[in-house]
Amino acid sequence: MLVPLYEAVYERLDVGGGTRMLGLGCGSGLALLMAASRGAAVTGVDSRSPELLALARRRLLSEASEEPGTDGAGSTRARADAPRIVEGSPGDAADPTAPAFTLVTAFEPTGCLAGDQDELADLLARATPLAARGAAVVLAGWGPPERCATTSVLRVAAKLADPTRGPGCWRPALRDDLEEVAQRAGLRPDGSGRVACPFGYADTGSAVRGLLSTGLFDAAVAATDPEQVDKELTEALHPHQRPDGTVWMPNMFRYLIARVP
Q1: For residue 152, which phi and psi values (nearest 5 degrees)?
Q2: How many C-beta neighbours within 10 Å does residue 168 have?
Q3: Residue 163: is the preceding peptide bond cis (ω within 30°)?
Q4: Does residue 180 belong to any structural domain of this protein?
Q5: Bridge partners of residue 44, in order along the sequence
Q6: Which residue stretches belong to region Disordered (predicted)?
Q7: What is the maximum span of the chain, computed from C-alpha positions, in angstroms?
Q8: Which domain range does residue 65 map to?
Q9: CB–CB of 85/60 below 8 Å?
Q10: For tag attachment on the chain, is the N or C end more exposed, with fewer CB atoms within 10 Å?
């Protein structure tokens, strides 16, 4: 769903052969794959899902290991700039033998869960020492609630999570969420943009599964039960269902470019 966001950022920053990118919270590695296809040397780091990291490795590493080149004995050698997928924290991605990163990305939308800004600021504080001076750091978040059709559906998460609201509960994005995180991480803002990222699903069932996979409804599931969340999600999606049964929700996402001082 966020492919338009990745494309807009990479185009604006001219990501290519001279880019060394560190992707924070890289998940299944799609953003890394797109950057690598433009010639960037990519490293992804995540600590949350071994299953998603395994998918990222399959996407990136198998192809890289088959790049032409021999070690003199006729066997294929790995490229020096081969993609890396690291399970752990940004410090685990440090490589003292490699040049500093020129781009750090945090594409997972921030500001939509209570407490996620604290986590991201801490993550950035540990990641930016690995980046070169002046390197770009990209943060992403939901756009204004009135510009995001999915907002009405996400409100189900907040309603069902009550009265246990706290860390991990959904909340609408605020105008200065990204700037506040950048400031706390000691970064210098250097431009921003908005990108249309519509959410489209083949049917309501697919939409429910897709939205639940984001983690935005985890607190609601914990406070009630999966069946209740599924039921209310299905009802909230009804206005977005088209005559052919597909679900379509136009959304606007925002990104901030900051610089390492």
Answers
A1: -65, -30
A2: 18
A3: yes
A4: yes
A5: 23, 85
A6: 63-82
A7: 66
A8: 3-147+170-199+252-259
A9: yes
A10: C
The overall average pLDDT reported for the chain is 89
Using CA atoms, how far apart are residues 137 and 23, in angstroms rounded to an integer?
10
**Count of domains in the chain?**
1
Let me know if residue 68 belongs to a domain: yes
State how far the Cα of 31 lies from the Cα of 42, in Å rounded to an integer: 10
**H-run or E-run covering 8:** helix 3-12
Count CA atoms closer than 13 A to 136's CA, side-chain side: 19
> What is d(CA 170, CA 158) in angstroms, rounded to the nearest whole number?
5
Angle between helices 3-12 and 30-37 (to 10 degrees): 40
Which residue in the block uniquely carries the two structure tokens 């519509």? 198
Residue 79 has pLDDT above 60, yes or no: no
Tell if the pTM clears 0.70, that is, is over it. yes
Please, which residues have CB within 8 angstroms of residue 238's CB and are 6 or more apart in sequence? 204
Any idea which residue has 């999570």 for tokens?
161
d(CA 219, CA 45): 25
pLDDT-derived band at 175 (thresholds 50, 70, 90) equals confident
User: Quick one: pLDDT band at residue 71, thresholds 50, 70, 90?
Assistant: very low
How distant is the alpha carbon of residue 121 from its chain centre? 15
What whole-number distance in Å separates Cα of residue 231 and Cα of residue 212? 12
Q: Which of the pair, 61 or 11, is modelled with greater confidence?
A: 11
Rg (CA), the chain: 19
Q: Is residue 217 part of a domain?
A: no
The answer as to whether 209 is a domain residue is no
The amino acid at residue 106 is: A
DSSP-assigned letter for residue 89: -
